[in-house]
Amino acid sequence: MNKGIYIATLESHSGKSMISLGLMRTLLGKMVKVGYFRPIINNVIEGQRDNHIDTVLSYFDLDIPYEDTFAFTRNEVIQKRNEGKSGEIIDTIISKYKKLEEEFDFILVEGSDFSGEGSVFEFDVNVVIAKNLGIPVIIVVSGQFKNWEELLGNQQMAYRAFKDKEVQVIAMVSNKIQQDNLELAKKNMRAFLPDEVGVFAIPFVDTLNNPTLKEIVKVLNGNVLFGHDFLDNQTGNFGVGAMQLRNYLTTLKNESLVITPGDRADIILGALQANISSNYPRISGIILTGGLTPEESILKLIEGLSDIVPIISVNEGTFSVTNMVGAIKSNIYADSIQKIQTTISIFERYVSFDPLVEKLINYNPQGITPRMFQYGLVQRARQGKKHIVLPEGTDERILTAAKRLIDMNLVELTLLGDIDTIHKTVAKIALDLDFSKVNIIDPITSPNLQDYAETFYELRKHKGVNMDMAKDRMCDVSYYGTMMIHKGHADGMVSGAAHTTQHTILPALQFIKTKPNVSVVSSVFFMCLEDRVSVFGDCAINPNPTADELAEITISSAESASAFGIAPKIAMLSYSSGSSGKGADVDRVREATEIVRKRRPDLKIEGPIQYDAAVDISIGKSKLPESEVAGQANVLIFPDLNTGNNTYKAVQRETGALAIGPMLQGLNKPVNDLSRGCTVADIYNTVILTAIQAQGI
């Protein structure tokens, strides 16, 4: 069975790293353990590590010792080749790969980078390595600085080289192509490649090729005077500040890097003022050349500014620095989280590897891993794109999550709130949110306000609501967002980052209402533990459910688990296991268990049962040896809110588990509640859950 794939190129700076990061994300969504291996890495200074290996290991949290991820440095390969030991190179690479193959379900192998001495023979070495490892290949070719004839010639040469060695090529990627030429690039590849070889084209993306201030500091050996916390700023372009300020300001572009002699206080202060002015673009940083620094009074003035970009002093002259900055080739580092996420997002937008990956993988995973689960969520959300409304549109976390969701093309979004405030908040946090891809509505000025108020009045007039009250309610973002769902103007809502649970849920209970045969709105968390996903319910809504309510919560939770690919094995948790325990609390759980068995005899359920007996196979078998659930439970139902809420938080904090949710169950249309301490990741995941719910699960 094939257990690997090889990513190869025939040149430096091809964008191979994007394919590696994107494909690693795809693979981790489909299997439990994925390894990473680079047969040959660039030379590194003694005591340091290969940057790209560190990036992959760190971002994807791969449990692989660093020394197992590569076989040789480039210098070592050249030396052995010069000594006539080419066979030893291959033997060592095979040995190290096979070791990983024994430990992992699949291995992503990344070829060499083609930089420095000896690059002439590297392509042939990569062909030989792929041949000896017996794994198929993805070829990546850059279209940057090439005409069509050159690009096509390189692609045909690369394909023939692997084909001649009987190495299967499963896909070819044309990278760094102009946006308007993507379809032509794919057409040209398809003209000479067999139908079974996938063809993909990815556009040139400026933001991925521009260096960060951190990279510039490293190359220039600069001294950071201000803005240490913003060294991850990426440069959009750069220019020399040598003219008078009034003329220089007109040359500024978004994310400009200002290069100017250190004694030009006028340019320095003018650029900083432009950065915070709504009339000028933001700048990414300032380079002070010639080893000069501003006078003490100027430094003191800068120090007191509220918004400071990185200001870096270097010894070289302006001309030299400008040339050096222009020559920097940007890389992706382990701490460049935004850049990594952007890279993966672009890969997933332009490359659909799923059909090809399915051909590569022949396995039958048991259960579902956190990686599989999260990958599945993203894919399902994207396949059935839904419209989600976020009432707290002025919250920085909401806006940041909105950008990520839009960039990933997962949902259509509507933000509610004062439009001017939303725009100012986006500018304040320097968020590159594409406003053309998101709807923004201020309920107070919305053309739908009157219609929504009249609808609410008709729905609630029997409760004493008059038109003035109805209109007042519809000016509230939670009520307005819920009415959007009721009227079919949105598919779901996520709120709670700045509002209470009651504020979020009450409108839904008033006019979204519960599904037929459902009387209890409840919640579940999807707990992504180290090697499995468990469903915890109810940890957010019902303080002290009765036995009948607990049974309904259980059935809803089992249905939610099934809808998200988890075959439910239900544990009804209590302080005792089996029939030994006595008392009102355990009797209530016992009664709820029997109700579930009568209503849903198809469900696998055990209760009452203690938490350790539910999840630990040895303890479960010792306490309930005949149970088909004990020790294997993946749906855990807590007897009350106190127990459930504290347990999920304890598990989350002590194990580092990712808690996705809460996801509300039982409503006719999806409305989900965040905690006021939620993170951007919490919002992102909850919106995805809501979108999938809206697909009609």
TrEMBL record:
Cited function: Involved in acetate metabolism.
Natural source organism: Salegentibacter holothuriorum
The EC number(s) this enzyme carries: 2.3.1.8
Top EC class, one word: transferase
InterPro entries: DRTGG, P-Actrans_bac, P-loop_NTPase, P_AcTrfase, P_AcTrfase_dom1, P_AcTrfase_dom2, Phos_Acetyltrans/Butyryltrans, PTA_PTB
Every DRTGG domain range: 215-325
PANTHER family associated with the record: PHOSPHATE ACETYLTRANSFERASE (PTHR43356:SF3)
Segments forming domain Phosphate acetyl/butaryl transferase: 373-691
Name of this protein: Phosphate acetyltransferase
Domain notes: The N-terminal region seems to be important for proper quaternary structure. The C-terminal region contains the substrate-binding site.
Cellular compartment(s): Cytoplasm
